[in-house]
Amino acid sequence: MLLTLVAVLVVAIASRGHPVAQQFFAQFPRVHVVVTAFLALVVQSLPFVLVGSMLSATVALWMTPDRWARVLPRRGIAAVLVAALVGICVPTCECSSVPLAKRMMNSGVTPAAAITVMLAAPSANPLVVYATFTAFGGWEMAVARLVAGMLAVVGVGVSVMVWGGRAFAGLGLVAPHDGGRRSWWGLMSHDVVDSLTFLCVGAFLAAVINLVMPVHLLVSLSHQVVFAVVIMMTLAIVASLCSFGDAFVAASLVGVHPAGMLGFMVVGPIIDMKLASMMEGILGDRPTRFIAVSGFVSALVATLTVAWLWGWWG
Known about the structure:
It is found in: Cell membrane. It comes from Corynebacterium matruchotii ATCC 33806. The chain crosses the membrane at residues 33-64, 76-100, 112-136, 148-175, 195-213, 225-241, 247-270, 290-313. The chain is mainly alpha-helical. It is 78% helix and 0% strand. It has 16 helices and no strands.
């Protein structure tokens, strides 16, 4: 499956120079614009997806649940804060972090700490921050993403600690479905296929939006901060992108308010349609709903706060 996806991308890129393709694009220039934008986004994101998936597989094999239990404090706000700091050092994607959180809780880690690691790892690890720097061509948005992501993740962790007792009470009854022991290649290829699939969908949506979205709507999104953030967060939930590639899709949406782009990147690693499905299968329905609501609210508040601190409200 992994080789098939890569082969399709290679053929798509190579075929653009074929005479038949050139003739087709000459007749349908708008299709050419969409294809060009789509391929540019995928090619830009691909190295980060591949490297991130390799590191994610390595961490999954090396950091066993028992090791996590020894690293993290067992109670209180300290557990959440340490979990957030530990999480940003773990270059893993959303697909790997959900079963990891379940295994951590089975090893004695508190739900608040486990969920914090689960969300912090794909939200603000160094590779994600560097990918954001590359996509936007500077550190302003990259640092904004790091700060907003950490605020949102800690917000969810504290919410689980304070109000999540009932939602997470029966978590031990749900068995993890990650298949137990797996090879490094199996873990890596699974993450790559998942990431590339949703990256392609998101890149296509971004290319189409850039082509068909009316200019006046883009202008309105560049002036109404709260509206821009909510719309872009909703788009991120639907697109279900991997955090290693979402910055390139966000940066391609020219004309959208910076706060909207930030919200797009902050909420995606916390909750989207793909993650909701995975969480429901591994963690259960009530924890998933709790994370979805607290995650959206925390991401919204964190995004608006950082946008104000960065002077983007003016």
